[in-house]
Write a structure and sequence with these properties.
By secondary structure, this protein is mainly beta. The chain has one helix and six strands.
Length: about 120
């Protein structure tokens, strides 16, 4: 658990279309085996330290004739942003995916100062 000073809590969120491979016959739709897509998300304002990031599927369009396999998450989280990652494998056919995300963390304050 992260403890945050209540007047410096920052919450940023978004909803990002990660890909739409059905329209372009991309590898998520036509490929097989291990596949991955990632997109760097930049926060609206830098956090004081890397925040907690939650991800969730807000839209998935998948072929019902194959097994549906998906793994989503946030990786490489820094004060400025993170990598939104979607992975699938096997014969899963993914037409498109949109991922919602929320970051919660401590913001810097004008009264902060550091001794060197």
């Amino acid at each position: 658990m992260k403890r945050l000073r209540n007047h410096l809590v920052g919450i940023d969120q978004g909803d990002t279309v990660l890909f739409s491979d059905f329209e372009t016959d991309g590898e998520m739709w036509t490929g097989r085996g291990q596949r991955e897509r990632r997109k760097r998300i930049k926060f609206g304002e830098a956090y004081r330290a890397p925040p907690a990031v939650h991800t969730s599927v807000s839209l998935w369009d998948m072929d019902a004739a194959t097994v549906i396999r998906a793994d989503i998450g946030a990786e490489a989280v820094t004060e400025d942003g993170f990598d939104l990652v979607f992975r699938t494998w096997g014969d899963t056919r993914v037409a498109r995916v949109r991922i919602g995300w929320m970051a919660i963390g401590e913001l810097s304050d004008d009264d902060d100062w550091e001794l060197d």
